Amino acid sequence: MSELAVPVVEITPPTLPPATDPSVLRLALVGNPNTGKTTLFNALTGLRQRVGNFAGVTVERVEGFFRTASGTRVSCLDLPGSYSLSASSPDEQIALEVLLGRARDGWRPDVVVVVADAVHLERNLYLLSQVLEVGVPVVLALNQMDAAESNGIRIDIPELIHELGISVVPMVAKRGQGLDALGRACEMAVTLPVPARKFALANVVDEALAPIVSELEVAGFKPSAARLEALRLMSVQHAEPHLAHVAGLEDVRKHAANTLAQIGLAPQRLESDARYGWIGEVIARTTTTREQNGRSISDRIDSVTLHRVVGPLLFIALMAIVFQSVFTWAAPLQDAIERGIAALGVMVGSWIPEGELRSLVVDGIFAGVGSVLVFLPQICILFLVIGVLEDSGYMARAAFLMDRVMRRVGLHGRSFIPMLSGYACAVPGIMATRVIENRQDRLATMMVVPLMSCSARLPVYTLLIGSFVPVSTLPLGFGLQGLTLLGMYLLGTLTALGVAAIFKRTLLKGPVRPMILELPSYRWPSLPTLGVTVWQRAMLFVRRAGTVIMALSIVLWAMATYPRTAPDPQLSDVAQQEQQLEQSVLGRVGKVIEPVVRPLGYDWKIGVSIAASFAAREVFVSTMGTIYGVGGDDDNAAALGDRLKAEVDPITGRPVYSTLVALGLMVFYVYALMCMSTTAITVREAGGGRVGWSWAGIQFGYSLVLAYGAAWLVYNVGRALGFGG
Amino acid sequence: MLGLDDCGTDEACRLRALGLCEGTSVSVIDSRHAMVLDVRGTRLALGSSITASITVQPLPAVRSARG
């Protein structure tokens, strides 16, 4: 391992291989949000990236690899965007741990690159002033120099280098300007003296903090980092989580805070006063701003997007476009993928002799792969659109506009986009919860996203509505069928808001954090960056969810196929299929659960279809198709509908499917989480491992209870009121 | 010019890091349902629950870079 072994650090194996390779330069990238840090990271590393989570937390860990112009191999860690190292959020906590060499996976940076936005240099220097003290070589990447220029901001780079005592590289990352210079600066930085604090505290303050500093040094902190920590600990509200690694520090801290208070200094504002005091001097010496005449372009755009009337209307229009694009643009691609995979399956199947193996390959593996890949177009399009909204700066405005509404149910303005995405597909919706910083809010949103009726429910709704809801036109031209469909969507949405409120008051109880939101300047999104992000999300989905879904598909295939029944030559193919299904494990499961679904008005056939659709709800239609022997294609939906209407209960002689049963079944599908892709992605996004599985379990469990309860209510209350049997 | 009333909370800590610390001069861009402030050249939107604990003193017309 590297030079300074910190005794308290637990190193969790296995470490990524390059982390231990001494010939590789380890570079950590930190910066405020909206500085173009990710753009720079993508420009440096391209697609040579590895995405995971930091050990034990939901914070995403993105590591990339590149070579500098002179050939040095660099492993680059993109730390989450943070405004400071104050560790008030999990993201900032992680950034602090990594920089202090205390990351749990043992990754320690050789050099830290602070990415700063040249337009907002003053605020960006706060983070830099903290990073300068962690005891690692630092390089400042001064990004968005073009924007600074057009805003009339001139930065005296040599003077800034002189003031900061580190290399400063002016850049325009989205155009690739300054990348080579940054590489050289990093190579050089490792050979230069390590930077330290640039300002002095008053003697009395230094004396008050001295005991904390010495305690921290004993605990293995570098002297400079110990002084950083001591100052930082004065300003945090709940010091306990930060002190866990050094025993007995709390008393020393309290004592120091009291000493400072006695001499009339507020410990909380010590750090910000000292740093911003120094920053003010640096800014005064290095930057000149030409007076702008009139308001900036950003402010003028804001006067429209945040307008009292126009703002919300524009927001609704934009969201409609988002929703439509995910729905309509993805549809042809999804069809193409489905057909392509099916055709490929048939082709491969024709090379394999008729029998078990062919069935496994065609109906198990290829069908399983297809059911995974079919989500890809929606994921790619959604992340492309979200990326455009995020990078252009509009997302912050959307969160601002939605904050008041979402706050009523205890959520954050940023929960809105994931929930909206849920209408298309819960999988990208849950992945999109990453924009929510607070873990409680993020989990609460994740829990309710699947209640938004996704496109996979549509086949179920259309089959049942088409067959059982009469075509009648109500006043004003509304059709009863259309209204029923709308009702299903509304039911899901309102329940989602209600359930979120319940989660926020129970399991995920936490203060609703007041809105503190930066509204970044509007700018054009960079296409290469968007491309990399979309690619990352797509691969993440295919790799992580793909493996689980594949495995479950094979299990389900086996359950529907075994045990084999001897084919009865007198029966038709369709009847043989039906018999086979009835005898299979899945069929038996259906029989076993029949008493459970009876109170809802269902027979074993619906039970089997529900059981089969636990993996993916659209399977309900195809299973019903198989059972009723009309085939599962969409084209046959009408035929299936007629068949369902004609189905008669052998005991009572009454129709099995009344409008009431159909309605109950739809309500069941509004709530039931029957989609293994969603479950797989929830496991991952909720933190993986046991934590991830338990959240996925809670999500699945409450949905099922809700589904069963609601379907029971619809059926039984409906009957009591005298509607249908 | 402003002061933070409840200056020990996590939120106050975040605000200070964002450059909104005691003595900073800010200009109010928008104040209908939430405040939009100009703080050191950045636009910050703050919810009403947090603006309630920020005291602002009007400055004379001449703006100083820092208070």
SSE layout:
The complex is a heterodimer of chains A (725) and B (67).
Chain A: E1 25-31, H1 37-45, E2 49-53, E3 60-67, E4 73-78, H2 90-99, E5 111-117, H3 121-131, E6 138-143, H4 145-150, E7 153-155, H5 157-164, E8 167-170, H6 179-189, H7 203-218, H8 223-235, H9 240-243, H10 249-262, H11 270-286, E9 287-289, H12 297-305, H13 310-351, H14 356-373, H15 376-392, H16 394-408, H17 416-421, H18 426-431, H19 439-448, H20 458-468, H21 480-505, E10 516-519, H22 527-561, H23 573-583, H24 585-597, H25 604-612, H26 619-627, H27 637-646, H28 659-671, H29 676-685, H30 689-720
Parallel strand pairs in A: 1-4, 1-5, 5-6, 6-8
Antiparallel strand pairs in A: 2-3, 3-4, 7-9
Helix pairs in contact in A: 3-11, 7-8, 7-10, 13-14, 13-15, 14-22, 15-22, 19-21, 20-21, 20-27, 20-28, 21-28, 22-29, 23-24, 24-25, 25-26, 28-30, 29-30
Chain B: E1 2-4, H1 10-17, E2 26-30, E3 35-39, E4 42-46, H2 48-51, E5 54-56
Antiparallel strand pairs in B: 1-5, 2-3, 3-4
- Which whole number gives the mean pLDDT of chain B? 73
Distance from first to last alpha carbon of chain B: 7 Å
Distance between the termini of chain A: 73 Å
Strand arrangement, major sheet of chain B = 2-3-4
Low-confidence stretches of chain A: 1-19
Can you describe what's shown?
The complex is a heterodimer of chains A (725) and B (67). With 725 residues, chain A is of the alpha/beta class. Chain A has helices at 37-45, 90-99, 121-131, 145-150, 157-164, 179-189, 203-218, 223-235, 240-243, 249-262, 270-286, 297-305, 310-351, 356-373, 376-392, 394-408, 416-421, 426-431, 439-448, 458-468, 480-505, 527-561, 573-583, 585-597, 604-612, 619-627, 637-646, 659-671, 676-685, 689-720, and strands at residues 25-31, 49-53, 60-67, 73-78, 111-117, 138-143, 153-155, 167-170, 287-289, 516-519. Chain A is built from 30 helices and 10 strands. In chain B, the strands form 2 sheets. A 3-stranded antiparallel sheet of chain B has the order 2-3-4. A two-stranded antiparallel ribbon of chain B has the order 1-5. By secondary structure, chain B is an alpha+beta fold. The relative contact order of chain B is 0.27. Chains A and B meet through helix 3, helix 11, helix 12, helix 16 and strand 10 of A and helix 1 and strand 4 of B.
